From TrEMBL:
This is Biotin--[acetyl-CoA-carboxylase] ligase. Its EC number is 6.3.4.15. It comes from Thermococcus aciditolerans. Residues 1-172 form the BPL/LPL catalytic domain. The lineage of its organism: Archaea, Methanobacteriati, Methanobacteriota, Thermococci, Thermococcales. The keyword Oxidoreductase does not apply.
Length: 236
């Protein structure tokens, strides 16, 4: 199968957000187009949160046109990031649903956005050589802090595109296998967590990640399926 992710690459010095840029050009570019920017002036997380994106990190978005909008696309990004980090000798795990953590801190975040029948945008932020600002240092980390030397961004991007291509195919053809791998890579399973879903805070044990991408929790003996939310780990 032809490799679609990265067949067209748009590189920018500065942009508001690669996800926003990708949405603006979606009608004019082929599926698999990748937008990469050296820095973002308005990098975004979920629910309008900020994503700090100075020079030195990898900030990118992939334009995809899958048959339908599927929330499991986020795991294509997470698995590809975990594999990319492993290529550079960094062990990491998936914090359901959209973070990758290494050494107890967040190294990458993924933001998927889609419009049914039109497009899906897979946005990935990966801290590579960028300095983490003071206020995030407790919870965020860059690859360079593990490797001790700066990494060539193009080499990191090359590995990431390679793994994205592979996992995107698995996503399209065998989403059950994609989810099996996510379960293997998820580090929250079996742990006490608090999930914030909208205004609700739900505390319990994270039992499993189901094939539809949702999180199965044990809340005082009751099973509950959480479709999407923010997870924080609790320590007793
Ligand atoms: C995410 O949101 O983790 C998704 C981040 C997606 C960023 C990429 S970069 C390319 C593309 N273009 C965009 O504009 N976005 C995507 P969320 O789960 O809401 O986490 C946001 C939180 O992560 C913030 O509130 C901070 O606490 C923290 N954070 C911000 N910048 C960070 C960084 N560089 N590294 C680690 N944590 C960070």
């Amino acid at each position: 199968m032809e490799r679609i992710i990265g067949r067209k690459l748009i590189t920018l010095d500065e942009v508001d957000s690669t996800n926003e840029y990708a949405k603006r050009i979606v009608q004019d570019v082929p599926e698999g187009t990748v937008v990469v920017a050296k820095r973002q002036t308005a990098g975004r997380g979920r629910r309008g949160r900020n994503w700090t994106s100075p020079e030195g990190g990898l900030w990118m978005s992939v334009v995809l046109k899958p048959p339908r909008v599927d929330p499991r696309l986020v795991f294509v990004g997470a698995l590809a990031v975990v594999d990319t980090l492993a290529d550079f000798g960094i062990e990491s795990g998936i914090k359901w649903p959209n973070d990758v953590w290494a050494g107890g801190r967040k190294i990458s975040g993924i933001l998927t956005e889609g419009k049914a029948g039109e497009y899906s945008i897979l946005g990935i932020g990966l801290n590579v050589n960028n300095v983490i600002p003071e206020e995030l240092r407790e919870n965020a980390v860059s690859m360079v802090q593990f490797t001790g030397r700066e990494l060539p961004l193009d080499a990191v991007l090359e590995r990431l595109l390679f793994h994205l291509g592979g996992w995107y195919r698995v996503f399209l053809e065998r989403p059950d296998l994609l989810m099996a791998k996510v379960r293997e890579r998820a580090f929250i399973l079996g742990k006490a967590v608090t999930v914030t879903e909208g205004d609700e805070r739900i505390s319990g044990i994270a039992l499993d990640i189901l094939d539809d991408g949702s999180l199965l929790m044990d809340i005082d003996g009751q099973l509950r399926r959480i479709l999407y939310g923010d997870v924080s780990l609790r320590f007793f």
